[in-house]
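for the writeup, i need someone to sanity check this before i put it in the appendix. the sequnce is what the collaborator sent (i think, or maybe the updated version? ugh). structure was predicted straight from it, no edits. if anything looks off just tell me and ill rerun, i have time this weekend
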Amino acid sequence: MKDYFVRRLLLIPPTLLGITLIVFFMTRMVPGGPIERAIAEARQASVTAGRGGATAGTTLSEEQIQQMREYYGFDKPWHVSYAHWVGNVLRGDLGRSYLYNEPVWLVIKSKFPISIYFGILTVFFTYAICIPLGIVKAIKHRTWIDNSSSVAIFAGYAIPNYVLGSILILIFGARLEWFPLTGLSASQFRYDSLAAIGSLIHQTTLPLLCYLVSSFAFTTLLMKNTLMDHLAADYMRTAVAKGVSFRRAVLGHALRNSLIPVATTFGQNIGLILTGSFLIEVIFDIDGFGLLGFSSIVDRDYPVVMGILLVSSLLLLVGNIISDALVAVIDPRIRFN
C-alpha cells in the first residue's frame, strides 16, 4: 500500500502540468487580455477628453503596444511563455498580478484567512450534522422524523445556493435589517475581543447557511442509504441473533462500514476549505479566494488565474490521496496494490 501512495504522489506533478498547460493555452487564445484592455481604456480616455472621436483610433503607438507585449510576455510563443512560467513556479515565483501590481503569492495569501475560516466551518458543520442525521434517518426510516427531515433537505437542495443567498440578503438584510449587507473583508476579520467575535458571527451567519445547504442533502442521504444497506446485511442479523444489542451492532459494525463512502468525499471538501464558492462570495461580497478567482477571470489577470488554478488543483489532488488513506484506515480489508 505504501507503493500505491508513492505512485499517487509521483503522479501529482505531471497532472498539474497537464492542467496548467491547457489553461495557459486558453488564456493566450481568448480575446480581451491586458493589452486590449489598455488600448480600450486609452481610446475611451481620448474620447472623454475630447481629443478624438470614436473613429479616431487608439492613442497608443505601435512602439508602446510592442513594449506592453514584451512586459506582459505576449511577444513570445505561448509554449515558450509557459516554459518560462513553469521555471518561475519551480523557483517559488508565481508571477506578478496585472491588476494589483503585486506578487501573485501575496495577493492569494491575503485571501487565505477568510476562505479557510468559512471552509473549516462548512466542513465541520456538514459532517457534524449530516452524519448523525443520516444515522437517525436510517434507523427511523419512513417515520415522521425521516419524512419531515427529507422534505426540509430536498427543499434546501432544490434551491441553488446563490439564489438562496440573494433571497436571504433581500429578506433578512434589506427588509428586516437583521444582518449586514456589506461583505466581510480582511480588515473586518478580527477575533481579538468579544465584540469583534460577535460581529464576525453576525456577518458569518447568512453566507455559512448558504454553504451548508448545498452539501446537506448529498452527505445526509449518502450516509442514510449506505447505513440502510448495511443494516439489512447478513452480518447484522447474525450479530443480533447471537445476542449483540442493536445499538452495539450499529455503532460497532454497520456504522464503520457505512463511513467508507462518506470518507471518499473528504478529499473534495479539502479543496472547499480554501477555494470556497465564488458565487456565494460574489453575492455576499466576501473578500475571499473565490471572489479573487472570479474577479481575476473577469479582469483577465492571468498570473492570478494561473496561481489560483495551481493551488486549487494541488489541494484537490492531495485531498484525493487523503481520502484513499482514510478509506484504508476505516476498513482494514482495503489494500491498494
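Confidence is low (pLDDT under 50) at residues 52-58. Residues 194-231 form the longest helix (38 residues).
thx in advance!!
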